[in-house]
Structures are given as C-alpha cells and as structure tokens.
C-alpha cells in the first residue's frame, strides 16, 4: 500500500494559548469539561482545557452542542482547528488522528492508529520524511527495482509504453523509496518534477 499522502501535509504550527487580554483563566465548568473531552477524545491538562475553552467562548459555541454532536460542519471544523492550536501533542487528538488516517486512505494507504500517531509526531522532526518512514518499519523498502515484482513490472512496462494510468497505479502501489515508485512518480521518467498520481492529468 502507498504511504505518501501525509508526507505532503503542510507544516503544522502548534500555538499555545498565551497571556493575551481576554484569555480564559477560569477552570471549565463540568459541562464545558465534558464538551472538551467529547471534542478532543482525551483528557487534557488544565492549561490545555482552558485554551480549548477559549475557543468555545470565542466561537460562541454552546458546550451542549459539542456533547450531543449537533454542531454544524463549519463550527465543528472551527472547534477542531481551535483545539489543535491548544494541544501540545496532536497525536493525542482523536479527530485529528482520524483525519490523518482518512487522508492517507484517500491515496490508497491504510494506517493503523499507532502508525498515524507516530507519523503525526514525526512532522515535528527536522527530517520529516525520514522520521515518518521510521514509523512504518518494514512496510518501507528502498531497494526494489524492475524485475523484483511481476505485477509492478507489468505496470512499469505499460507506463513506459505511454499509459499514464499505469504510471499512476505504479506510483500508488510501489514501495516508498523504490525505483518502481520513482518511475511511476515521474510518469516513466518523462516528467521528473511530477508529484505523483498526476500522470493521467499531465499526459492527457
């Protein structure tokens, strides 16, 4: 399975809640604490709870709407974004982890929760791609080339013959770092700057 979509995730800046005017300094009420837990799917330290509460207050959200799941899609997205700014460890934020898993699945990659959490934490490293590859362990191979896999060889041949769909399929199915992947990503060495899964659009 491919494991690439999350490698193009933009840099995520984790902003803590500072001491600006208007910042909530009180403890959440029982209802607000329940809403915060329902939103993030985890128990947060008090400082992070206060920060998420600030988002609830700023957005004018009724905590009961969070608890019963009746927020609009826009409000739900805004609340998740606000929570992401407050949480030191995004990998502990269940909705964020799930969105990461869903994003990977869209490009054909199935991630476990543990792999997704490891990959999210890897985004904060200096060498994101290497750190993410470490999260995937033996799912990653960098030494496979033409002749090592009959199915991928067939896609390679079709891609080399000018079939852009085969190039995209080769890229999607090839092990990360393999020559198969590079050949598919570059549309059979035709488009060296291709980002992958673009051959069908770029060659038609």
Protein described:
53% of the residues lie in helices and 0% in strands. With 204 residues, the protein is an all-alpha fold. It folds into three domains: 5-12 and 93-139, no CATH class; 30-87, no CATH class; 150-202, no CATH class.
- Individual helix count: 11
Structural class: mainly alpha
Provide the low-confidence segments as ranges. Answer: 1-21
Number of strands: 0
What portion of residues is helical? 40-55%
For the sheet with most strands, the description reads: none
Shape summary? elongated
Calculate Rg over CA atoms.
21 Å
Strand coverage percent? under 5%
Q: SSE layout and pairings?
A:
Layout: H1 30-40, H2 46-59, H3 63-68, H4 73-86, H5 94-106, H6 113-122, H7 128-136, H8 150-160, H9 164-173, H10 179-185, H11 199-202
Helix pairs in contact: 2-4, 5-6, 6-7, 8-9, 9-10
Summarize the structure.
The protein is mainly α. The chain has eleven helices and no strands.
What keyword list fits this structure?
204 residues, mainly alpha, 3 domains, elongated, disordered N terminus
């Amino acid at each position: 399975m491919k494991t690439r979509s999350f490698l193009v995730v933009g840099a995520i800046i984790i902003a803590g809640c500072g001491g600006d005017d208007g910042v909530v300094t009180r403890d959440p009420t029982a209802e607000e604490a329940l809403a915060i837990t329902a939103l993030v799917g985890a128990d947060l330290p008090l400082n992070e709870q206060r920060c998420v509460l600030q988002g609830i207050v700023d957005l004018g959200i009724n905590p009961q709407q969070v608890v019963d799941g009746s927020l609009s899609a826009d409000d739900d997205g805004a609340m998740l974004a606000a929570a992401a700014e407050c949480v030191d460890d995004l990998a502990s934020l269940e909705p964020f982890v799930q969105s990461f898993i869903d994003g990977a699945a869209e490009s054909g990659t199935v991630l476990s929760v543990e792999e997704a959490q490891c990959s999210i934490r890897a985004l904060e490293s200096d060498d994101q791609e290497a750190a993410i590859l470490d999260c995937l362990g033996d799912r990653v191979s960098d030494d496979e080339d033409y002749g090592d896999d009959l199915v991928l060889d067939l896609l390679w041949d079709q891609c080399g013959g000018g079939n852009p769909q085969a190039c995209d399929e080769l890229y999607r199915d090839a092990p990360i770092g393999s020559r198969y992947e590079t050949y598919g990503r570059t549309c059979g060495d035709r488009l060296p700057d291709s980002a992958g899964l673009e051959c069908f659009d770029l060659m038609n």
